[in-house]
Amino acid sequence: MGCCTGRCTLIFLCTLQLLSALERQIFDFLGFQWAPILGNFLHIIVVILGLFGTIQFRPRYIVVYTVWTALWVTWNVFIICFYLEVGGLSKDTDLMTFNISVHRSWWREHGPGCVRRVLPPSAHGMMDDYTYVSVTGCVIDFQYLEVIHSAIQILLSLIGFVYACYVISVFMEEEDSFDFIGGLDTHSYHQSPQDHVELKPVKPVEINNEH
């Protein structure tokens, strides 16, 4: 089977998802965001699985990818709510680091146009707290950059979900068609020419012993 439009599009979407997930994983590592790091890792594995299933005509792998895209959309919606502080959530908590560190998003201090300045230790206590760092001049606040990243993930996942469902339906139809044709061929192959011979009764031959 050649590369149909839906299958080629799904391969392209999976490739984009891999690239975007790897880019996001790098910056989450730099910010020690352990919860997003774990989510990105699982996402990369499942996308690779979906890509393999699309290339190798394995509908079950694509089904796993389809289910995961729904979960991935839910996770990214939560991240958007977290950084926009919807429903009592606060972006200043340590939820994304599993409360094991005080690190924040890498974009908080390294966003476009941001100028990072460490305040003198005399004015504060410990130097490892982010409250002792002054960041000014940011073109876009870090929470909006995180929201943009999550919005891109949601968009790619929704499109991938639609095309994955389409590719699964195409694979299933082709498998049904192949089984139907194969069943006819098998029946005709096992059918011997003798099945078409009409059997006629044979009359007994009388033997004359008189000479």
Automatic annotation (TrEMBL):
<protein>
    <recommendedName>
        <fullName>Sodium/potassium-transporting ATPase subunit beta-1-interacting protein</fullName>
    </recommendedName>
</protein>
<dbReference type="Pfam" id="PF05640">
    <property type="entry name" value="NKAIN"/>
</dbReference>
<keyword id="KW-0732">Signal</keyword>
<keyword id="KW-0812">Transmembrane</keyword>
<feature type="signal peptide">
    <location>
        <begin position="1"/>
        <end position="21"/>
    </location>
</feature>
<dbReference type="GO" id="GO:0002028">
    <property type="term" value="P:regulation of sodium ion transport"/>
</dbReference>
<dbReference type="GO" id="GO:0005886">
    <property type="term" value="C:plasma membrane"/>
</dbReference>
<comment type="similarity">
    <text>Belongs to the NKAIN family.</text>
</comment>
<keyword id="KW-1003">Cell membrane</keyword>
<feature type="transmembrane region" description="Helical">
    <location>
        <begin position="34"/>
        <end position="55"/>
    </location>
</feature>
<dbReference type="InterPro" id="IPR008516">
    <property type="entry name" value="Na/K-Atpase_Interacting"/>
</dbReference>
<keyword id="KW-0472">Membrane</keyword>
<keyword id="KW-1133">Transmembrane helix</keyword>
<feature type="transmembrane region" description="Helical">
    <location>
        <begin position="151"/>
        <end position="171"/>
    </location>
</feature>
<feature type="transmembrane region" description="Helical">
    <location>
        <begin position="62"/>
        <end position="86"/>
    </location>
</feature>
